[in-house]
Design brief:
The complex is a heterotrimer of chains A (271), B (438) and C (296). Chain A is mainly α. Chain A is built from 14 helices and no strands. Chain A has a single domain, classed as Orthogonal Bundle (MetI-like fold), CATH 1.10.3720.10. Chain B is α/β, with parallel strands linked by helices and 438 residues long. Helix content of chain B is 45%, strand content 15%. Chain B contains 19 helices and 16 strands. Chain B has a 5-stranded mixed sheet. In chain B, strands 8-11-7-12 form a 4-stranded mixed sheet, sandwiched between helices. In chain B, strands 9-10-16 form a 3-stranded mixed sheet. The radius of gyration of chain B is 23 Å and the shape is globular. With 296 residues, chain C is mainly alpha-helical. Chain C has one domain: MetI-like fold, CATH 1.10.3720. In chain C, 74% of the residues lie in helices and 0% in strands. In chain C, α5 runs antiparallel to α13. Classes of the chains: A mainly alpha (271), B alpha/beta (438), C mainly alpha (296). Chain C: Belongs to the binding-protein-dependent transport system permease family. Chain C: One of its GO terms (biological process) is transmembrane transport. Chain C: It is a multi-pass membrane protein. Chain C: Its main location: membrane.
Chain lengths: 271, 438, 296
């Protein structure tokens, strides 16, 4: 333990150094966001002000924020629910070729969504889904291969002996899943949920194409208000808006992280 | 890619859907954000006069072209749509747009539109959309750098040799970007319009469309011609042989800002661009005063190559348009909305305040418009302008031209670039749709 | 171990089947849509215009053109370099090292690091592109700190070192994912196992290499597959930063695909490019799949 002190100090220094490198490009973002006369250059502002932020939250931003939240949380939740109920059987039942099948699905997702976009759009139109619900379903479909493969991997790491023990004590399938499997793969589920959430949060093309009304646009579409016609970009708006835009997702990450500790030992003893 | 029967079912379903939701007839209208200042007052006037409601949907410029193509093909598009003029022929060819001519007969302001600009929004002799604005193209130059390089100002180049000569002097005087000639795929349509086409038009005689990308008589694309070779050779001289300009401005993340910055820092010699530059020049936040602009930059028309019989100056114009969906429920009402937007008072106010080039004589000949010295002078260039080759396939050809200029930047020879371009045209359109000159 | 018949599973097959039903339906929809993309690669389908409605089958013509026309092979090489250095070397290794180092520590430093890498991940692609182009420009941060103080002329990084710059930007942007996945995976390695190894006198390196890595092998393989796919098809950052240029220096297959499908409007050729990409990554993934197998 004591010999570890210098090593951990060195590690801490290396990590701090990395954090500095990692965060330094943000100086551009911050300097421009708080500069009312922003030009997109890296420069110290002559005056500091919140004008850009005021501009970013005016107009439709509130509505767009709610839409983003709805689409992102909806997609993440639907993906995880659908994913869990299929990934558990996939992990536990002897279905031949399931790994190859899941990998093939993931590979198929390589085909660009641009190619899928046209048939997807026509299908959504026939189903009356040219709205946010349609966006949620479409994104869930596109996410599902990743979600299934990840969740199955996490379920695979849950020792089946614990489930056996619970069964012997008279637990039902539902209890086994909700009391043992899900808590023990909580970290993995959180990762999958968060991944779907951020993916949907940043999705631009689907909501743009699907929404019939302006009020249906999320923040990812609102961001592009910064771009004028002749390539004249309002950098102040762009940077301020993107800070506001990225902040909730960072917040969601920290809310999730608190609950991510799986508490392996505890469950093991009780089982 | 979907069968006709399916399309009609889809259209019928969408009609039912639109009929089911709102009780009253309404006109739907889709437009990109940047044009809001023109269309929103027009919509308000229309609603006041007719008592109808307009359901407007405002989109960011990003992804707009994709959405409009998808919406029109799926039958979910708005009744009235704003679109880039180069899309009009493609969309009209697919039957998505309503001809404007018959609707406009009774509209007294239709006569003022410049015929050349209506032609840009036409397909097979029919007008399918009305232009909102236009532009002309020219060579801008930095006066202080010209003085440093010992070139007389005002600069009046007569041939390409004059341009290359000036660029060489600028380079020798230490100017970082002596001749910024748009090239490459990142520049997109700018490489075709501001660069290649402006040179091409002056590279050979106009007879038989030898100075164009398309023979407009036979509707065949020109896969190889002296004019194309001369134009690509100009690029080769600028970017490879004489190294008269570094390539990086063409690939900047924000090309517009990068160009403005180099103009502000006096790093630019000659810039091949267009009339819109005047609205901003080097600072879009606080545009410089007329005097400051005139002191720092000047402009001159693009000269021809100097080949015998070729044009002495060249120009080509683009712009945006408003058109009506061929599936619109009430086309007369839809057109009424269009006329409300283009009504003289509204249209003129927008044209003047945004510093755009007028598309109608009643506006361009008005005293307010003539009072702007830049617009008055630039509009003179529009007298001898032309439009893009408005037949379906232009977009593809333009993209191939951009790829060709990209390859030149990579050092590929003119022969090989022309060969690649010709082969790609044959791939796209078939050998019978591609011709070569000489 | 999970292959034996387990009574709580076998008696509930119907319930389990019902649970899989929604996913099965959505997967069927996905297969239906991707079948379109496959079919398109054998057609001359265009994005707009007459060929968007009135297309025809062209057989393997699009695939022949991958090899007879300029662009595909050049872009493939660029993509291989981009994926290898930014995803496999950069994101994956860095993400794992961070996850292993920060594991179990609840220090403030951990939170700071997590915020840092998470911000990169969450920043919209287009903004990240502007941020990196500003950072590497002649007036940018790197020149201001490392070049100009030494009296050197500012370096035009995007012009002179375009590919390394987009690789670095992509590492910055994407490491969060590998970090997250490896953190969660390491978390599922029971502490007792690690403690036991410690008691047996294993060094920290041995604990990672011999104990933890083998347990999370499936996660490593999955992660490799995911980031390979994402990086192969990742488009917005490069496109916004350099548009594939200067010339074709950073034209990865994703950018090439976009140029052919959207700028040129040839969806048929574009689909053929993406099918070819699929085959290439499919072959790669066979390598990753081998990692899933237990060693003897």
């Amino acid at each position: 333990m004591e010999s570890n002190a210098t090593t951990s100090r060195l590690t801490a220094i290396a990590l701090s150094f990395m954090a500095v490198i990692w965060v330094s490009p943000f100086s551009w973002l911050i300097l421009n966001a708080f500069n009312p006369m922003s030009t997109g250059q890296l420069e110290i502002p002559k005056s500091i002000g919140l004008d850009n932020f005021a501009l970013a939250v005016s107009g439709n931003a509130g509505r767009q924020f709610l839409n983003s939240l709805l689409i992102a949380a909806g997609t993440a939740t639907l993906s995880v629910v659908v994913g869990i109920s299929a990934a558990y059987p996939l992990s536990r039942l002897r279905i031949p070729g399931r790994n190859a099948f899941l990998w093939t699905l993931v590979l198929l997702r390589m085909l660009p969504s641009a190619g899928v976009l046209v048939p997807l759009y026509f299908a959504a139109q026939r189903g009356g889904l040219l709205n946010q619900f349609g966006v949620i379903i479409a994104l869930t479909i596109l996410n599902l291969p990743f979600t299934l493969l990840l969740l199955k991997n996490f379920f695979d790491t849950v020792p089946i002996e614990l489930e056996e023990a619970a069964y012997v004590e008279g637990a039902t399938l539902f209890q086994i899943v909700t009391r043992i499997v899900l808590p023990m793969s909580r970290a993995g589920i959180a990762v999958v949920w968060f991944f779907s959430f951020t993916g949907a949060w940043n999705e631009f093309l689907l909501p743009l194409i699907f929404s019939r009304v302006q009020d249906g646009f999320p923040m990812s579409v609102g961001l592009y208000a910064a771009f004028g016609q002749q390539g004249a970009i309002n950098y102040g708006f762009l940077t301020a808006f993107s800070i506001i835009y990225a902040a909730p997702a960072v917040g969601v990450y920290f809310l999730l992280r608190r609950n991510m500790n799986t508490g392996f030992a505890g469950v093991g003893v009780k089982g | 890619m979907l069968k006709k029967g399916f399309l009609t079912t889809v259209a019928a379903l969408s009609l039912m859907a639109t009929a089911a939701i709102p009780a009253r007839a309404e006109v739907t209208f889709m437009y990109p954000e940047w044009i809001a200042a023109l269309v929103e007052p027009g919509i308000a006037n229309f609603e006041k006069e007719s008592g109808e409601t307009v359901k407007g949907i405002k989109l960011p410029g990003q992804g707009y072209d994709q959405r409009i193509a998808l919406d029109l093909s799926a039958g979910t598009a708005a009744d009235v749509n704003v679109m880039d003029s180069f899309m009009v022929s493609e969309l009209a060819a697919a039957g998505y747009l309503e001809p404007i001519g018959p609707l406009a007969e009774k509209w007294d302001q239709y006569q003022y539109y410049l015929p050349g600009l209506l032609e840009v929004a036409s397909y097979q002799g029919q007008v399918y959309a009305l232009p909102t604005d236009t532009d002309v193209r020219m060579l801008w130059y930095d006066k202080s750098n010209f003085e440093k390089a010992g070139i007389t100002v005002p600069w009046e180049p007569k041939t390409w040799a004059d341009i290359l000569d000036a660029a060489q002097k600028l380079k020798d005087a230490g100017v970082q970007y002596p001749f910024q000639l748009p090239a490459g795929t990142k520049q997109a349509e700018a490489a075709t319009m501001q660069g290649v086409y402006m040179a091409l038009l002056g590279a050979d005689v106009p007879e038989g469309d030898r100075n164009r990308l398309l023979n407009r008589e036979t509707n065949q694309w020109i896969g190889d011609s002296p004019a194309l070779r001369r134009t690509f050779d100009l690029y080769h001289q600028v970017y490879v042989d004489k190294k008269l300009n570094p390539a990086d401005l063409n690939y900047a993340t924000d090309i517009g800002a990068a160009v403005r910055q180099s103009l502000a820092d006096d790093k630019l010699g000659i810039l091949a661009s267009g009339s819109w530059e005047d609205a901003c020049l080097w600072d879009c936040n606080t545009p410089p005063s007329r005097e400051e602009r005139d002191a720092q930059v000047g402009w001159t028309p693009w000269p021809g190559s100097g080949e015998p019989g070729a044009k002495t100056t060249t120009n080509i114009s683009g712009g945006w348009t408003i058109g009506i969906n061929s599936k619109a429920t009430d086309k007369d009402l839809a057109f009424k909305l269009v006329t409300a937007i283009f009504d003289e008072a509204n249209f003129k106010a927008w044209t003047l305040s945004t510093h755009r080039m007028a598309v109608r004589t009643d506006i361009s000949e008005s005293p307010e418009y003539m009072a702007d010295p830049f617009l008055a002078k630039a509009t003179a260039l529009a007298a001898d302008t032309t439009g893009r080759d408005t037949i379906p396939g232009y977009q593809t050809v333009s993209a191939l031209i951009q790829q060709a200029t990209s390859d030149i930047l990579d050092g590929v020879s003119v022969d090989e670039v022309v060969q690649n371009y010709h082969d790609a045209l044959v791939d796209e359109f078939g050998a019978d749709k591609v011709i070569t000159y000489e | 171990m999970k292959n034996q018949a387990n009574p709580w599973l076998t008696s509930n097959l119907l319930v389990l089947g019902l649970g899989m039903l929604p996913a099965a339906l959505l997967i069927a929809a996905l297969l239906y849509f991707t079948a379109w993309a496959f079919a398109f690669s054998f057609t001359d389908l265009a994005l707009v215009g007459t060929k968007a409605v009135d297309w025809s089958w062209v057989g393997f013509q699009n695939f022949e053109r991958l090899f007879t026309r300029r662009g595909f092979l050049e872009s493939l090489w660029t993509t291989v370099i981009f994926v290898f250095f930014s995803a496999l070397v950069g994101q994956s290794v860095l993400g794992f090292l961070l996850a292993a180092t920060l594991r179990g520590t609840a220090s403030r430093l951990k939170s700071v690091i997590e915020v840092c890498i998470m911000l990169g991940w969450l920043l919209p692609d287009i903004v990240a592109a502007f941020l990196w182009s500003a950072t590497t420009s002649q007036t940018g941060l790197i020149n201001a700190i490392f070049v100009r103080p030494f009296g050197l002329p500012p370096i035009n990084f995007i012009n002179d070192y375009a590919l390394p710059i987009v690789i670095i930007a992509n590492i910055w942007k994407g490491t969060a994912w590998s970090y997250l996945l490896f953190s969660a995976a390491l978390d599922s390695v029971s502490r007792e196992v690690v403690e036991a190894a410690k008691v047996d006198g294993a060094t920290p390196f041995q604990r990672i290499w011999l104990v933890q890595l083998p347990i999370i092998r499936p996660h490593i393989a999955t992660n490799m597959l995911f980031i390979t796919i994402w990086t192969f098809t990742y488009f917005p950052l490069i496109y916004a930063m350099t548009g594939g240029g200067p010339g074709r220096q950073t034209e990865t297959l994703a950018v090439f695909l976009y140029n052919q499908s959207f700028a040129r409007g040839n969806l048929g050729f574009g689909s053929a490019i993406s099918v070819a990409m699929l085959v290439i990554v499919g072959l790669l993934s066979l390598v990753y799949l081998r990692m899933l197998r237990e060693p003897k």
